[in-house]
Amino acid sequence: MEMKKFLGAAMGCLMLFNMGAQDLHFSQFYHSPLNLNPALAGVHYGDFSFVSNYRSQWESIAVDYLTFSGTLERKFYMESLRNSYFAGALLFNFDQAGTSKLSRTNIGVSGSYSTQLSPTIFLTGGSTSRY
Predict the structure, then answer these.
(1) Cα-Cα-Cα-Cα dihedral sign, residues 34, 36, 38, 41
(2) CA-CA distance, 73 to 75, in Å (whole number)?
(3) Are 91 and 71 in contact (CB under 8 A)?
């Protein structure tokens, strides 16, 4: 009986959080870095970056899938932090699946901090918030 109460309480707590079961699926997922890890914001050559991905699968049958993702990133340097930088990013994702046109749209912001430990090693951490 105690196990049932525990499982019931655990399920109740999980329902308090926003849970999504529809994930983005890209064949070349490494071309969508901020959907992999928010710490990858700013990990690119240059100060600005724009990435867009589009996937349309199974158009010839009635159950087609459509996925779009776009990100805009910028690095922010501070003179007081040598060999380090902050980065910020805006994200947009849209996914539509099947004949029911089940869709999910979310927008978000990401931030990261990177510091150079040696000429070839960087330490980077990041966070994201999506709606």
Answers:
(1) negative
(2) 7
(3) yes
Q: Which of 122, 131, 98, 130 is nearest to 43 (CA)?
A: 122
Instruction: Give 1-44 pLDDT, tens digit per residue.
Output: 677 777 777 766 665 655 555 566 666 766 788 888 889 998 88
Which residues have CB under 8 Å from 118's CB, separation 6+? none
Which tens digits make up the pLDDT trace of 85-122?
999 999 999 988 877 778 889 999 999 999 999 998 99
Task: Return the domain boundaries, the chain.
Answer: 36-130
**DSSP code for 36:** H
Q: Are 73 and 102 in contact (CB under 8 A)?
A: no
